[in-house]
Every structure is written in structure tokens, then in C-alpha cells.
User: Fold this.
Amino acid sequence: MIILTKLNDQSFTLNALYIEQVQAFPDTTVTLTNGKKIVVKETEQELYQKITEFYKQIGLTSLVSKHYDSNEEV
Assistant:
């Protein structure tokens, strides 16, 4: 889970596994897998860092890295 801030300064927690896409319009907009869009104060780079840290915490980063490493050897 990652903590984000809406434009009205309210913070909320989001399960990063449901993030489909992040764009800056210039406001950072998070599109979820269900199609819902959330505009947040964090930049794309800040979101990337938060998502990466969350993936590390749940062990997903190491699995993705191992998958890519095994494909490179083929």
C-alpha cells in the first residue's frame, strides 16, 4: 500500500497493484485497473519511487527481476 495526497490535501492509501497507468497532464493522474482516475499531488517520479518500494516490500521486485534475468540468458 502507498500513501498519496489528493489535490485537496487529503491523504489516502492505495494498493499499488491496482495501478494501471500514471500520467502528468500536468497534474499527476493515476488510472486504476477498474478505469477510475485519481488526481494526486505527487509527481510521476515520486509515485514511481513509492510503487517500487511497495513492490520491494511484498517481494514482487525480486520476482520480476528474476523473470527478466532468466529471459536474457535464453
